Structure formats: C-alpha cells, structure tokens
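input
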Amino acid sequence: GQILELGVLRSLLKTAGGYGFADYGSTASLSQVQLEGRCGSQLLKRETASFGIVEKSNKKASRRLRCVLQKDDLGVTLLILLAQIRFRVMFHVSSSSPKHIKLIGNLYDNCVVVMGLMLEFLTDLSDDSPKKQYHQQEEGENVVNDEVGPSTAIAKYASSLPTLGELHDTYGVDTAVSWMLARPSIRAAMLTMEETKEPCGEENDDDEKKKSSPKETTMPPYFQRFHPDCTDMQKSYTPMLPEKAWEAISPALFESFYSHSLGDLHCPEERYTTEIARLKREVDRLTQVQQGSGEAALAAMATMAAAAAAAGGSRHDVQQAVVFTKSQEQELERVKRNAEALTLDMSRQKQHCETVRTQFELRQNDFLSPLSKDNVALFTTQTFLTYCVYPRCLLSPEDAMYCAHFVILLHSIETPGFQTMQYLDGLVDVVVGALYCITEDEAGNIGVMLAEMWKLISKWRYDEKVFTKEVVGKPGSYLTKENDKDDKNESEVESEAVSYANFTKLYNRWHASIGEAAIGCLKSSEYMHTRAALIVLNRIVRVYPTRPILGDKISDVLGPLQGEDNPRPDLRAMAQAYGSQLTKARNDGVWTELDAKATEARKSKEKAVMEERRKKAEERLEEMKRETDEITNQIGESRSRNPRYQNMRAGDPRGGHYPERVSHRARPTPAATFTPPNGGATRDLAYSSSRVGGVGGRDQRDHPPPPREYHRRGGGDRDHSRGGEAPRRSGERGDHHSTHSDNRSHKWERDRGSSGAPTGSSGGGGGGTPQQQSDRDSSRSGNVGDHRGGQPSSSELGGRWERESSSKRSRSPHRDDGGNERGEITKRMRGDSVHAPPPPPPPP
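output
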C-alpha cells in the first residue's frame, strides 16, 4: 500500500522508456499549445511537449523496458494495482501521524498520472516493426518471431488484460478506470474491423450466430472479447450502473461515451498546420546552411557564430559553429521526416473524425429514443453527468477535453432528447460543488473542460445570430421544469424552448454562481479550497469572467492573497500570477460587458496613479541627490580640517589632492664608500648595491639618467655613436621599471642640487664634454678602466651599458629571455644588467 516510491517508476518510464513528452508536472502547468498537441497523434504530442525541442530517446532501451513489463503480465498487474490503490490513498487511516491533505492529494494525483503514463507506454505501436519483432526469453537471447504483426504491443496488452467485466467485478476497479484500461484494446478492435470492411456480428440464418462475436478469420481472438458488439462485452455494462440509472441512459450512449477517445472526435488542424509550417521553415534554414549560399544562410551562420561567441567559445568553437556538422545533417533528416509524417497524420485523423461523426449520426436515435420521455427530460442530464462526464473528466486533461467535445458533438448532430441547456445548468452546479472536494490535478482537469464549454456559451451569449443559428429550434434548446399539480400529489413535466433573452438570464445566473463559489474558496482558510479555486480560475481566465462587476470583486479578493503578509508563499505566487493574467484579459477585451465610460474612467484612474508614482520617483531621486551632495561636502570639510591634507604639495600634477608618498622602508646601515675617478660625489657601496641589486651595479645618483626614449622597448631607440636622440614615436609604450628609475634619479639629483653637490651633466649619450666622449669611445673599443678597490671603472661601466643596449635592440620585445619587461625585471633583481649612463664630465 506504499506509493511514495512511484517516482522511481515514473522516472524510469520517462528516461529509459523515452516518454518524457507524455508526462507533465501538473495540469495547471500545461499551456494551450501543449493541450492542443495532446489532441493529435503521438508525433504531434512530441513536437509540442517542449515547444519544438524534441528529446532524443534510446529505442533499444525502450524496447527492453517494454519487454520486461510484458513478461509474465507484469505491466498489466501494476496497472490493476495502481487502479486499486487510488482510493486507499484517500481513505486509509495509518497508525502513525495523519498525513496532510496536500500530501494526500499529491499522492493521489501521482498515482493517476503514473497509471496513464504506463498505459500509454504499454500500448505504443511506434517501436513495433512491421515484419519482425524481437522478444526477450529467459535465457537472455533475442529470438526473431516472423509471425508477429505490426500491432505487437497492443496485441500483447490485449491478451494479458482481463475483460471489462472482470476488471469491474472481480478486481474492484471503478467504472471510469475500467474503461480507461480497456479502451486501447476496444479501439484496436474497432479499427481492425474498419480495416477489414466487415461489420461485426454479421447476420446468419441461425439466431445464435446472429448475436455471436466476430469470426476468427475477421479479427484476432484477443480482440474479439473487447469489441463493443460482443455479447459478453454488452452484458458487462449492466453491473456498472445502478438499475435506476439505466432508466435515464441507454447502453448505446454509455458505450459510445466510454469507448472513444479525444482523437476520434477532434482534429486540431490549426495546431497541425502551425507545427508543419515551423518544421518546413527549419528545413529551409538547415538546407541553406548546408548549401552555404543566400542571405538567409549567411544570416543563420552569423546567428550561430554570435551564439557561440556569446557562450564564451574560442575561435575554433566559433568556426565550428558555422560548419554543417553531422548532427545538423541528422536534424535535417529528422525534421523532413516529421513534417511529412505530421501531414499524413493530420489527413488520417481528419478522415477518421469524419467517419466517427458519421457513425454517431447513424446511431443518434439509439441513444435516448428507447427511453421514457419523462425520464429523459428529468433525469438523463443528471445521470449522464454523474456516471459518465464527471468521473472521466477527472482522470486526465485529454479526458476533460473529450467530455466537452462529446457534448458539443451530441448538440451539433441534434441528438433527440438530449437537452443541452439542461446539461449546462447541471454542469455549473457540478463545478460549484466540486471546488470544495478535488485535488490540484482534478481542479486543472475541470478547468480545462469548463474552458472549452464556456467558450461555446460565451459565443452564444454575445452573438445573437450565432445563437439563432446553432441553438434555436434544436433539441438542445429545451429546458425542463417540474411543476406540481394543485388537485393531486402529482407533478407534470414541462419543457420549453429557451429564447435569447432567457438564455441571457441563464448566462448571468451561471456566471454569478461560479463567481460566488470561487470567491468563497478564495476567502476560505482551508488550503486546498483556495488552491483549487485559483487553478480553475487560471485555466478559464481567457473566457471568464466577462462581466466587469464580478471581475472587480475577484480582483479585490485577490489583494490579501497577493500581499507579503500571506504566510503561504505558493498561494501568494499563484494569486499574483492570476492577478496579472486577469488584468491582461481585461485589457484584451475578455470583459465583454465593460462599457466605454467605465473603460475611460479606469484608464484615467490608472493614468493618475502612474503620474503620482512618477512624481514620487522624481522626489526620491532629488532627495538622493541632496543627500549625496551633503555627504560630499562633509567629506571635503573633514579633509580641510585634517593636518595631513593641509600640507599637500602645491606642485603635484594630480592637483594637490593627495599627500606626498612616504616610504616606510628602513634604509640599510652605511658601509664602505666609493669615489669615482673622474670626479663626482662619494657614495656608500652597500646602499648603492641595495638600490641597483648588486656590488657591480652603478648608482644613478652620480649621473643623470639617459633620456626616456632609451628605456623604451629595451633601449633600442637611440643612436649613441652619432649623438642625438631618436624621435619619440606616438603610442609607444615605455619601460615601467625604467620610468620609476628615472623618477628616483631626478628626485635624487634635485636633492643633491639643492645641497650644493655636483650633479653632473644631464645630456644624452651622444653629447657631453670631450672627456665623456673619449670615455665612451674607449668603452666601445673594448678598453677596460682600472679597478680601484675591486670596483669597476667608469669606462668599463659605460662599455657594458653600450653592449647591453645593442644586445637589447636585437631582441624581440615578445620574448621572455630578457627582451621584455619581465626579463628586465629579472636582470635587475640579479644585478647583472644595469642601465649605466655615460660618465660625468671631469670636475672643473
């Protein structure tokens, strides 16, 4: 009796079975496109399930799973158990703590959805081969059976399933679910009979053979017991309804209602046409991409390249995005095949619907004519709603739409005795009472059926010509009343035709009844009442309400549910979503009775509200600006009072807004000193080596640094032999570290100049005194100066500086062996490469 693990079976059918398209989270989440797609073939359902995105499925895994479920009748056993356990979920009392009503409803809905999903999977014909079929044996070997026909899956299912009477009487399955499990076999039997063109139960001289089931040569034996004309099949109808009910409904109407499905009555031609056109456009696009010519192909390729680039793809990914790959070729073939298949499915289903309609027209006199007129007038609609429409419409969205289209078909073919007005009056009462005792999926299914019916009702209400054409003078236009006689305790039945004026009154009463029930549920403290009402109202928002008075009332009731003080966030989200759709429906003209004055007044009020909001937004913006200015002024005053900001440098190129940077690095203790041979200031060797990275390095404080053009791109922009500087190229990047060295050298020179020390010449490498020129010439010729105290001479340093400059000019700026910034930084840290300026002039 535990069904909490049904999610495992559901996931298995979706993934391994490839039936994710048939599954749905809840009926409330299905869009109109998905609902229309479920009216057509399985291929149309696949194309519309995810809005054109078709998930690939493994056919081998699907066949294997179906084979496992068909073995030892495992799938049929699970279906019967799921049908039996539905009511145990609601009425079983556990010894532990009671379950919440929301959990009970979700378990019940999950059980029904899994049952429908497995039924569709077991009766699927798409994986059957027309010539041979593989089936799994106990040894695990695949054996070919050439005698199996194209309907292997449905044949195996029909042979394993008990008869309709056994399902209801022996296994205790309720009427609607018994017909649900047997319907695939019944439809297969009827389609087989249509293909053979031989009526079931052909007349013979023998009376016993006249009522017997079809011949064995006409239909396989596993289909004979499910054909509607079978004697055993007809006998099983009687125990399904009370005896009193058979006085108001005939077996022909009962069997016709339960034995057909939505695809027999309704063909979604518009949805078929839309999907076929979409697939053809996709074929054209892929064909143009394959050929690589035309504006459309270039536009498609540009779109794909932009999408790949936006996704963060590399250059290779962008190039591959515009290449016609093998997957795109497979997609092109799939789209072509599906477009042709959908065209064929539409023509077949359209023809089949016309055939079924013709059969209904031929049998319409057998539905209610054999019954008493008084019973038909008083009890037929109520009995039909209680035992046929209501139980079936709760099972799935397809069944809900089927119930609506079945009633519309009975009205359009002018079925004698079927009073459509009486049925609609009873349907409104059923919907009002059901709002307080249904689950979430059941509420969605009732909303689907009510939306289909209310679409027809609104068309009759607001178009008198259509009402006159489709209602007036037909059997469905009558409404029955039961009047008491004065002299006796008897009653007489009075049926009168409904005129357009009376129908308007009926419409207003039905409209108000549904609205009052919905408002009562929205105000209720019970969770399920509110949620069911929101689901139903959300499904019919495009057709209901049509009267502005009721619409305004519903909007007012939604206010507390939409507020942040609502303790249930799921209800708050649903109320906000429905409120938005209700407003959109009003603006789109669904509120048909909204007059021009009321519309103008509403628009003026909304305009005033929007203007007030705009003014408040501008005031808030101005207030934010004032606060920003005040904060800025306060920050400026605090800086002006701070002594740190009062002693700023006046000549700072940044405008004097920042104090001079102070270095907190501790200077090393002075060690031995060194005096250049040609003059210059004495300096500490330890401090100099710490500044340049080694003992052999040259301190830039004694001599001015070379021009900045030399430091750019590794020092390759200057010709020292000719004297003079190469012009600085625009946009040329400089050496970051050399720039900092320049700044430090200039600062040191300023400090030395202010103290009276000789600063030397600031000229470049080609200028200077004759002594400087002779030193440079000697360094170029390879002469090495003396080394006093183990230190290099100025001539040696100048020669090294020149050799390094020439080597840097020959290096590429993109290499990492010393020709770029990283190499320069590394050499400075090692101390084996220092930019040494030319020696200073001799002292006077």
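quick obs: The first strand starts at residue 133 and ends at 136.
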